[in-house]
Amino acid sequence: MLGFLSTQTLSPGMGCNRNQEFWGALLELDDDPSVELLQDKDVWKFTDGWHRAFLNDPLLEYQRAGDKETPVQVKVKRRVFAVAVHSWIRTKVVITVKQGASVVICEIPAGGRKSPKARLLDWLVNTMFKGFGKVQNEEHKKRRREFDAKLQTAIARTIGDRAKTMVYVNLVVTTPESQGHGYASTLLHKVTRLADLLGDACWLVSSNIVNEPFYNSHGFKAVSDVIVGDDNPAWNKDPVDVQVMVREPRAV
């Protein structure tokens, strides 16, 4: 997934009420009581785990442009992300296993306009992300613009307006010490199972090619590869492959 979420890709027309209804239906499936809503008290635990889980993410390494984050930058980034998570708890589906050890965030197709509260929270989060981006160096900004432009082109070409009728999986994160226990699979299965019951397709953006088998095992297939760093002389590593992936609904 995208380690530090691009605000340009997170709002395909979702609504707060539909997300709450989706979660209610997830609970009614009742096939795994270990899955629950992420609570505000567990946001900082999740934020710390998110930061550590994406330390070696290829896309983030490329976007850092060789700079090592200072302790102050890390602190600010984590606080911005934590505030965003508090907002997403109220506007998206944020489910977890073991109080933040593993988390999946997703959005459900909305039947109408977002509520004023949801729009206000979206504005607040977007403003924070933009403010954080302004303090980055010029090479960092250049690489982020490169990725955003290529990603938007890929999404428009392969998904287009269909995104408005699909479940969007924003983020899948498991803390390093909790990996290997199937927690993310449990959460993602919960989401895809109800999507199947609703007849909705799902989509996501994966920033690490090594995760492709995991997403394939849940029915996601790559529909576009966004390559960055292939024509940047300042980047001396392999180009980074970011995948746009789609899962079509299965008969139930």
Automatic annotation (TrEMBL):
N-acetyltransferase domain location: 163-227
InterPro entries per UniProt: Acyl_CoA_acyltransferase (IPR016181), GNAT_dom (IPR000182), Trichothecene_AcTrans (IPR052523)
Full protein name: N-acetyltransferase domain-containing protein
Biological classification of the source: Eukaryota, Fungi, Dikarya, Basidiomycota, Agaricomycotina
Pfam families: Acetyltransf_10
GO molecular function term, any single one: acyltransferase activity, transferring groups other than amino-acyl groups
Gene source species: Coprinellus micaceus
The organism's place on the tree of life at top rank: Eukaryota
